[in-house]
């Protein structure tokens, strides 16, 4: 039986049930690792290390989790803080070899993917990093503007502005695809 | 090449020139479509030992929560034993024992031993 996040957290905090935490890790690992890969500029190894650290940090801090926000928002906030502080400390140290290797592997798959996905990827690269993150959190992950603002540690108005500007940019860049879909 | 750059600059200028008011003119259909496309293009990342690596590095659960779990198990066993004792027909067994002239001390001894065995079994089963 799949318990919801709140029940699992209660079991972890009250009974020290680590199997409940394993369920939470399995539930969010793919989404978080994928998000962090984007945030780490495609460095998969670094993204996975950061995701692992975020899950461990979240476990240790779980007794202090008050449930004001959803667990996923809280977890993303921890992960984003970790990545940002890592970036501040080691700004020039992106493992370029790993990035190139990952891109080469991806390009094989990419060739088989629809053109839409490729163009969407290119359009996303045209956005600023903050706009990309805001779109990713709000439109891909389904976080509200308020939740995205708390994750990114930005004022709500700034996040809304990032999302709106990114949306307008994407609308222009992907107009051709959109028209194709609408015209059937 | 230069013409493409010019085209891109013109396009970017057009996008950047849009005012916030224009941005607020949201197109819900576009939002839904974009959300779908973003989710569609996202692969599911296999666990591939990730969860196990996280679990290996977690600190052991606190002694407090362990003690709490043990207390809960003992409580459950005592409650179960009370229900069994409440339902057990002691008077009939007592009468039968008198009729069979079984010594009182051996009867009490057997009772105590079997209760201990049942409780130990219950605790072991609950802990497992």
Summarize the structure.
The complex is a heterodimer of chains A (184) and B (128). With 184 residues, chain A is mainly alpha-helical. Chain A has helices spanning 5-15, 18-39, 44-61, 71-89, 96-112, 115-125, 129-140, 145-152, 156-173, 175-183.
Please give the CATH class of the largest domain in chain A. Answer: Mainly Alpha
Residue windows where pLDDT falls under 50 for at least 5 positions of chain A: none
Tell me roughly what share of residues is in helical segments of chain B. Answer: over 70%
How many structurally independent domains of chain A?
A: 2
Oligomer: heterodimer
Q: Quote the beta fraction of chain A.
A: under 5%
- The global form of chain A is globular
Percent range for β-strand residues of chain B: under 5%
Tell me the name of the CATH homologous superfamily of the largest domain in chain A.
Answer: RNA polymerase sigma factor, region 2, helix turn helix motif
CATH fold-level label of the largest domain in chain A: Rna Polymerase Sigma Factor, Chain: A
User: Uncertain runs of chain B with pLDDT below 50, 5 residues or more?
Assistant: 6-23
Query: Structural class, from helix and strand content of chain B?
Result: mainly alpha
What structural class do the secondary elements of chain A suggest?
mainly alpha
The largest chain-to-chain contact, stated as pair and per-chain residue counts, equals: A-B, 43 and 40 residues
Whole-number average pLDDT of chain B?
73
Which overall shape of chain B is indicated by the principal axes computed on the Cα atoms?
elongated
Q: Sheet bearing the most strands of chain B, described?
A: none
Tally the helices of chain B: 7
Number of strands of chain A: 0
Cα(first) to Cα(last) distance of chain A is 42 Å
Give me the strand/helix succession of chain A.
HHHHHHHHHH
């Amino acid at each position: 039986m799949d318990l919801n996040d709140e029940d699992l957290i209660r079991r972890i905090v009250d009974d020290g049930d680590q199997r409940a935490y394993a369920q939470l890790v399995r539930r969010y690992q793919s989404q978080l690792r994928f998000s962090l890969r984007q945030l780490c500029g495609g460095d998969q190894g670094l993204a996975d290390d950061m995701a692992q650290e975020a899950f461990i940090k979240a476990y240790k801090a779980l007794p202090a989790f008050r449930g004001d926000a959803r667990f996923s928002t809280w977890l993303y906030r921890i992960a984003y803080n970790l990545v940002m502080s890592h970036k501040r400390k080691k700004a020039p140290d992106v493992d370029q070899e790993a990035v190139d290797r990952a891109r080469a592997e991806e390009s094989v798959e990419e060739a088989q993917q629809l053109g839409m996905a490729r163009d969407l990827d290119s359009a996303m690269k045209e956005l600023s990093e903050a706009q990309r993150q805001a779109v990713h959190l709000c439109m891909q992950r389904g976080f509200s503007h308020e939740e995205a603002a708390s994750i990114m540690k930005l004022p709500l108005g700034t996040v809304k502005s990032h999302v709106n500007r990114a949306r307008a940019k994407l609308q222009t860049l992907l107009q051709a695809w959109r028209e194709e879909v609408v015209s059937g | 090449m230069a013409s493409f750059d010019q085209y891109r600059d013109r396009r970017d200028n057009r996008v950047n020139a849009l005012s916030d008011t224009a941005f607020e003119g949201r197109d819900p259909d576009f939002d839904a479509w974009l959300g779908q496309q973003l989710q569609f293009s996202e692969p599911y990342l296999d666990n591939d030992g990730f969860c196990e690596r996280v679990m290996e590095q977690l600190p052991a659960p606190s002694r407090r929560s362990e003690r709490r779990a043990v207390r809960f198990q003992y409580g459950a066993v005592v409650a179960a034993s009370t229900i069994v004792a409440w339902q057990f027909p002691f008077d009939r067994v007592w009468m039968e024992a008198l009729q069979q002239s079984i010594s009182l001390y051996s009867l009490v001894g057997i009772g105590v031993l079997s209760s201990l065995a049942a409780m130990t079994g219950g605790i072991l089963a609950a802990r497992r």
